[in-house]
Design goal:
elongated, 232 residues, disordered N terminus, 4 helices
Amino acid sequence: MTVPAVVAALALALWLPSRNTYATEVGGQRLVRLDDGSRIQLDTDTRVKVRFGEAERRILLERGQALFMVARDASRPFRVAAGDVEITALGTVFDVRRETAGVRVTLVEGAVAVVEDAPMEPRRWRLTPGQQVRTSLTGSTPVDVDAKAATSWSTGRLVFQSTPLAEAVAEVNRYLPEKIILAAPAAENVPVNGVFAAGDRDAFVSAASDLFGLSARPQADGGVRLAPSPGG
């Protein structure tokens, strides 16, 4: 092989992997259309790698969250790997989120098999539509959830249903480069109900301030601090 040919082959080898890598920044979302007709909706701060072969379609979810809309192909299973967890589907719609510990899988349509390569022995679950499993929980079993609310982020909305305020703040912060700091311990477990546009910090801060008697104070780094109002 000539030197130019070697250089060209090396350049191609270096270029191909990045061609199949898709990512979003904090606050960003992206719809990826795959060659087989499947689609992947990437949430904020998410990175996936796509590796399609003759025997299987494999996606590596390196970080973040994604909604998978899988085109049916019985000869090539569609598999998503997220850390030690692998999700297998043929034709279905499901959501996968990598958490601080473990993975959360929500099934919207169809059926999926979830396997975790645990230290002692593999753990296995099979989900039906409207079920969710979180592998970080000891003795975790599938639970019924509102799949539409759980995947509302894919339409740019965050739906909170009796969600503790601290948890709601953490969810809103996933879409913000400049975060909300909750400095109100007494309000951390107060339930939040409502629908907010992902990334709309002002609307969420305003609602939390009004409903829970908190004051919003801008921070030097661009964030905002929610704390009890003086005399409140």
